[in-house]
Model the fold of this input.
Amino acid sequence: MPASEPSRYLARSLPRAFVPSARPQGFCLRRNVSDQASSKAAPADLNELESATSLSSTTLSEASVKSFDPIARTKTRKKQLPRSRYQFRSPKYDRGPLHPHQPPPPSDPSSRLYVPGPFSLPRVEQTYQSTVASDILTLCYVHNPPGFKPPPKAPRLRSWDDSSPYHKNRPLRGPRGGDVLRLLRKPINFNNVPELERITIHSYVKQAAQENSSWLHVAGMAVQAISNARVETFKSKTSVATWSIAPGRDTVAVKAELRGEDMLHFFGKLVDVVMPRIKDWEGVKGSSGDSSGNITFGLEPENVALFPEIEVNYDMYPPKMIPGCHITIHTSAKTDKDARLLLSAMGIPFYGKMVD
Amino acid sequence: MTLSIPLRRSAVTAARVQTTTFICSQCRHATLLRRPKRPYTFTQLITLSDGSTFTHRTTSPAPVYRSTRDTRNSLLWNPSSSKLMNVEEDEAGRLAAFRAKFGRSWDANTPTEAETNKTAEQTDKEAEAAARAAAEEEEDDNLLDLISSFGQEEEQPSGKKKN
Done:
């Protein structure tokens, strides 16, 4: 290459055939920066440049200034402009972690799984933040004087006493009086105040197996209407001979799972509008709950019909097919007592003996 | 030595096996990423029976929902409200007539609605008047105190100094 360097300047003035070259002059697609093509292209590029400097301001004519109205021009346009030429589209299939073309995470707006929102600050959330959370924090405060040490607790899983040689290498024993290992309840602090996590609306329609699937369709539509969320259907896991339901064969249940904004809107609607209208209703039974902070109660079909979404379009649903449902409120509380405290602060009445 | 080395190796491999979370190394199928389906929602204004309103997102297309029965006027949420407690439907005045005719020994002590209203209003007015008078007196006292203490504060230390 250094040998051919002085010939670069010659090459401009001389026709190509006369240029001395170290390389054989054959049909060659390979090109270097020092090649003739690139050296020839440079003046052509420079010709395209504007001669005037862009720093000096140009004076526009009055007419062109007055005619410039981009808003009016866009309004006269009948069709939308085409979108920009390049737009990332997520792959339609997830082909596994080793595939080079990975879909973006669901939080990315270009992802196929992206769900936009939240779009509003629900009233329940505002109430919770402004009053309920601080009230619960105050109610659950336990004062420990400085220097207080809690008495040591026995381990949750007991070890085997080595009375038998067979106890060697056994896994630890479960707690006394039952095999269930309850959730640990930590003292309620500013950063673990119980709150609503999700609400599950579940409806078991036995007629879907006995008669036809229209019961299931109606139940799905009703649950979707009251919850603002798509429902999932489930097949029976158990066999109920009297209802002629076989496991794995009959689709009998409908479930909607609500989180975030949907959940809060549903909860507000349930407490403020639907619950007071239920006839002769005492409240949620005090013994309900799974002893880990999730509380379930049921609504009869006539109570489900009280939801404003179903009421506004009541004729759409065949009246006998409106389903009842079970509503499970999952809270981040670790015990039923805390969950009940939260829910009663949010407006759900409880009655009867409170089982914690 | 010869025994211990293979033992160690096996322990290391066991630990590695336990810590891995990568379960499916040979998944050849592709899973379809379904777009989540969401029902269309509208913003609805809910008007409670006492006139308070709030908006929420709902599948119902009605822009406004007026509730006749809600937490503001149901007994379960207002257990101490006397208005909701005695729901005696006496539109024709028959029960009142019966009481006038045959006496009312069983509820003689409970005052009628008009009486309760009057008494409530009267008591309210009296209480208000008393509160006003007390406030005025207090203000006067405070002002008098201020005025009297203004001079005294200056005098007292000076007197002390003199003494």
